[in-house]
Amino acid sequence: MGKKKTESNFLYSHNPNGMFKLLWGTLENSDNAEVLLEIDETELMNLEKERFGISRDKLVFIGMANLSKYYWCAWQYYLKSKKNEQEFFLAYFQDRLKYSKELGMLKKIPKNEKEILRIGDEINFKQIQNLLDKKQVINSSNEAKEEIMELLKKEDDPLIKGYYHQTLYAENYPSIRWNFRYKDIAILGIPDGITDDFVYEFKYTSKKRYFSHTLRTARLQADFYGHYFNKPKKKIQIYCEEENKVHTYFENVDNKEILELLEKWTQMIDGKLPVKPQSWKCTKCEFKDECILIKS
Ligand code: SF4
Predict the structure, then answer these.
(1) 125 contacts 103 by C-beta, under 8 angstroms
(2) How far is 5 from 3, CA to CA, in rounded Å?
(3) pLDDT higher than 80, residue 50
(4) From ligand 1's centre to the CA of 80, what distance in Å?
(5) Do 222 and 253 form a contact (C-beta atoms < 8 A)?
(6) Helix or strand or coil: residue 95?
(7) Helix H or strand E encompassing 194
């Protein structure tokens, strides 16, 4: 039987100077791929902002996880979102290209920046739901879990520990990343799971004393997912290491809370400074040397 010919697709390359290359070809034969675009990553993001009719300086591409940290310190997560905006833009951009191809919506190979940025404009939420329905859930093997238990013994980084605990204790559901517009913001999110009735969010906390903050953030994050992925319920699980226990909450999605929070975000993006957090939160903040809130 002959070998099946691999279909051409979008390929990406980034170099350390911030240049982004979009190619059309196959991974097996990437040296012969056609270069569709070679551009500075920030410039590409700014062209998309211009297409939206939004100023280049304004924060536009934001993750739901950052939006949901508003009540920890809104300014910290505004600055963090500015710092990470390019990353979120590229996720937004690549999802639009990838799903357009998967959905058979690509009628011709785009030849210039304008055509490339327009790809994905026609994707609707029903099509995202159809793509989600085709997703397979991958369960970790017992061997992989045993390996993670060993790695956890020598790991200190809370982010990596959270990822390990998620592999060990979280429930497995399919999910998909997609973006949604609210006024001038393009909001990106990928829930930990999406079912017919609920979105699923898993969090990890090392100590009982951090639990209430973790729960507040988890609720808001799950509300964002529920609101945008159109599910009535949210299931939240928080693993507390100190107790070695998974806490489970199954609640209605609070759409009103999300719309109120988005208004606060748009006001902050438009220049209204948020309230200062409790000062102890500043001691470990990566922005404390440049923060206008603590200087005000
Ligand atoms: S230094 Fe304090 S007020 Fe400023 S961003 Fe950080 S946590 Fe917020």
Answers:
(1) no
(2) 6
(3) yes
(4) 11
(5) yes
(6) helix
(7) strand 193-194
- Tokens of residue 201, six digits: 């969010």
Ligand 1 atom 5: residue of nearest CA: 76
| 278 DSSP 8-state letter | -
Q: Is 183 in the pocket of ligand 1 (CB under 6 A)?
A: no
H or E, element range at 23: strand 19-25
Dump pLDDT digits (tens) for 127-151: 999 999 999 888 888 899 999 999 9
pLDDT tens track for 246-255? 999 999 999 9
The reply to whether ligand 1 has any atom less than 6 angstroms from the CB of 277 is yes
Distance 262 CA to ligand 1 centre (A): 20
CA of 293 to the centre of ligand 1 (A): 7
Ligand 1 atom at shortest distance from the alpha carbon of 76: 5
pLDDT-based confidence at residue 230 (cuts at 50, 70, 90): very high
Q: Coil, strand, or helix at residue 220?
A: helix
Q: Kindly state the tokens that stand for 246.
A: 């998974």
Segment (H or E) for 81: helix 74-83
Distance 135 CA to ligand 1 centre (A): 40
Paired tokens of 167: 């592999």
C-alpha closest to that of 174 among 133, 229, 219: 133
Confidence of residue 2 (pLDDT cuts 50, 70, 90): low
